[in-house]
């Protein structure tokens, strides 16, 4: 993959309901980076990724996705967005496979039959998150962690160059966190860009190459996560949930001490 | 099938069949988008369209399509703007539609309470051959939209943000759902009447939701239930000599109650199977 800029925001301001939520953000994310956007609830970290994707308009400043403003960006197949949770909507059932297959929509032409490439990508996405055996089950019957894995599989199915994930580890059981970390590590090794918003790193910490801390709508830290023991005060200064960043607290997750049953 | 010996019943049956097939197909998307009452809203607005037809001497179906499509677009624009004031704005539109319709029917030559009643509660036995052709054309258009845009509409109804970041034309697709619903309302108007139109878009879907596991199966099953309700309701109304629109809706509701019970039972036995 050639060296490219996935996201480039300059002087980004976002106002929601008359309240400034982002106040002058400059951030550039290169292809292949694995970036954690950290911050407390209400810090503006989710707003930041929504603005980067063009889901929220900027009140000032500019932002580019692969060099184009979101409104003129056309290569959406390169983007895999993983929202915080599965939406229930009006409760019409949908199977795991239906949801995951819908992640291919940016790559398919209208009325086209499911090609073998589609089938391979969908099956690979399902098995990457360990949900192949549940393909025919309605998503509503899955646990929160399993639903999160389905959402990630939906993004994987589109074979994007860039993953943007909103709190992928929030409320997710240890088994699912472990599966998620493995999946993301494999994608990172392929040179994919990963941007994830979180208030606790959990099992994914080991693959993060850069961390951005957002506080009160501005970036207060942007740099290496591995320097943390010396620089821990920076995070403490950002009022981060200490337990979320506490290395010792993560040990159990990788070892899978949590319930490993398929659980529902 | 003695009832098919009558020409008017043949036409009525075709119309009923088409409505039973199309309304739940669109309804599946509408229910998933939490717009179950959209059909009701459009139904109210459509009354003004019907009245305009009587007033100007145009075919009411045609004016109803035009006015309800405009109404649906207005409703969608209000919805997309935000929710807080949307509620009230929608209510204003609904009452405006009903009041405008009543007023205009009163003004039109030959307009009477009977005209009003047939628009509100259906008049399937008065379906003309022209009506059948128009209904068939509209039904083909509606089903065409569902087949052609189905994949995109599914993702839109699952998660609007993901649809947007997949590059889908979210605003266009949202308008498309609203307009398709408007056309469906007009198709169904003759069969069950404007006040009960929404029942055929929502109740068969709610029924099949109890029994199915996938989105596609929900839609197909709902279309099946829709046809059973419209065709079954119309035939029983013919023999029993009661109002067809009401019979169709009550039959769908009975189906829903039955499915609710069966669904509970099936889910419980499935849960028992999966526990070791």
Automatic annotation (TrEMBL), chain A:
Alphabetical list of PROSITE patterns matching this protein: ABC_TRANSPORTER_1 (PS00211), ABC_TRANSPORTER_2 (PS50893)
Keywords, alphabetical: ATP-binding, Nucleotide-binding, Transport
Domain of life assignment: Bacteria
Gene Ontology MF terms in the entry: ATP binding; ATP hydrolysis activity
InterPro entries documented for this protein: AAA+_ATPase, ABC_transporter-like_ATP-bd, ABC_transporter-like_CS, Metal_Ion_Import_ABC, P-loop_NTPase
Record domain ABC transporter: where: 1-241
Entries under PANTHER family matching the protein: METAL TRANSPORT SYSTEM ATP-BINDING PROTEIN TM_0124-RELATED
The name this protein goes by in its record: Zinc transport system ATP-binding protein
Native source organism of the sequence: Sinosporangium album
Source organism phylogeny: Bacteria, Bacillati, Actinomycetota, Actinomycetes, Streptosporangiales
UniProtKB/TrEMBL annotation, chain B:
Compartments, as annotated in UniProt: Cell membrane; Membrane
Listed Gene3D superfamilies: ABC transporter involved in vitamin B12 uptake, BtuC (1.10.3470.10)
GO cellular component, one term: ATP-binding cassette (ABC) transporter complex
Keyword Membrane: yes
Membrane topology type: Multi-pass membrane protein
Superkingdom of source: Bacteria
Keyword Nuclease: no
Pfam family, one: ABC-3
GO biological process: response to zinc ion; transmembrane transport
Keyword list, A-Z: Membrane, Transmembrane, Transmembrane helix, Transport
SUPFAM superfamilies per the UniProt record, alphabetical: ABC transporter involved in vitamin B12 uptake, BtuC (SSF81345)
Matching InterPro entries: ABC_BtuC-like, ABC_TroCD
Ranges annotated as spanning the membrane: 12-30, 61-78, 90-112, 132-150, 162-181, 187-207, 219-240, 246-266
Family: Belongs to the ABC-3 integral membrane protein family.
Protein name: Zinc transport system permease protein
């Amino acid at each position: 993959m050639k060296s490219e800029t996935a996201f480039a925001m300059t002087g980004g301001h976002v106002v929601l309901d008359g309240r400034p939520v982002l106040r002058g953000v400059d951030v550039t994310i290169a292809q292949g980076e694995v970036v954690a956007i950290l911050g407390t609830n209400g810090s503006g970290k989710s707003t930041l990724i929504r603005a980067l994707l063009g889901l929220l308009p900027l009140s000032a400043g500019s932002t580019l996705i692969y060099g184009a403003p979101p409104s003129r960006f056309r290569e959406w197949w390169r983007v895999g967005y993983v929202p915080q949770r599965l939406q229930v909507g009006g409760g019409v059932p949908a199977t795991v496979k239906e949801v995951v297959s819908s992640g291919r929509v940016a790559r398919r032409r209208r009325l086209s039959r499911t090609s073998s490439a589609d089938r391979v990508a969908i099956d690979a996405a399902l098995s990457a998150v360990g949900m192949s055996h549940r393909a025919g089950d309605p998503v509503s019957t899955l646990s929160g962690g399993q639903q999160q894995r389905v959402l990630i599989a939906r993004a994987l199915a589109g074979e994007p160059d860039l993953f943007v994930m909103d709190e992928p580890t929030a409320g997710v059981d240890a088994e699912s966190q472990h599966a998620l970390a493995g999946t993301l590590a494999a994608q990172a090794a392929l040179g994919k860009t990963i941007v994830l918003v979180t208030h606790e790193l959990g099992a994914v910490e080991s693959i993060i190459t850069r961390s951005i801390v957002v506080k009160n709508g501005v970036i207060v830290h942007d740099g290496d996560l591995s320097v943390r023991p010396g620089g821990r005060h920076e995070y403490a200064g950002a009022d981060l949930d200490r337990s979320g960043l506490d290395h010792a607290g993560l040990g159990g997750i990788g070892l899978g001490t949590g319930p490993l049953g398929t659980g529902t | 099938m003695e009832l098919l010996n009558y020409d008017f019943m043949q036409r009525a049956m075709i119309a009923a069949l088409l409505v039973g097939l199309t309304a739940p197909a669109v309804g599946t998307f509408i229910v998933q988008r939490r717009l179950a009452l959209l059909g009701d809203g459009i139904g109210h607005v459509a009354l003004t369209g019907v009245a305009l037809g009587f007033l100007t001497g145009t075919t009411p179906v045609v004016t109803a399509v035009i006015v309800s499509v405009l109404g649906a677009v207005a409703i969608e624009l209000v919805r997309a703007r935000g929710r807080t004031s949307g509620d009230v704005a929608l209510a204003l539109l609904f009452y405006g539609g009903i009041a405008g319709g009543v007023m205009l029917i009163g003004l039109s030559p030959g307009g009477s309470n009977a005209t009003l009643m047939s628009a509100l509660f259906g008049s399937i036995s008065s379906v003309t051959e022209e009506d059948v052709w128009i209904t068939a054309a509209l039904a083909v258009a509606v089903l065409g939209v569902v087949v052609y845009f189905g994949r995109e509409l599914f993702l839109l109804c699952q998660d609007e943000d993901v649809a947007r970041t997949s590059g889908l034309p979210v605003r266009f697709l949202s308008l498309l759902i609203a307009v398709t619903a408007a056309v469906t309302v007009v198709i169904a108007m003759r069969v069950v009447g404007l006040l009960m139109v929404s029942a055929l878009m929502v109740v068969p879907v709610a029924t099949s939701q109890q029994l199915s596991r996938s989105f596609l199966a929900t839609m197909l099953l709902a279309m099946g239930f829709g046809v059973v309700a419209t065709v079954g309701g119309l035939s029983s109304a013919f023999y029993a000599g009661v109002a067809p629109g009401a019979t169709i809706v009550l039959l769908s509701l009975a189906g829903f109650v039955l499915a609710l019970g069966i669904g509970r039972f099936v889910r419980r036995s499935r849960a028992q199977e999966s526990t070791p």
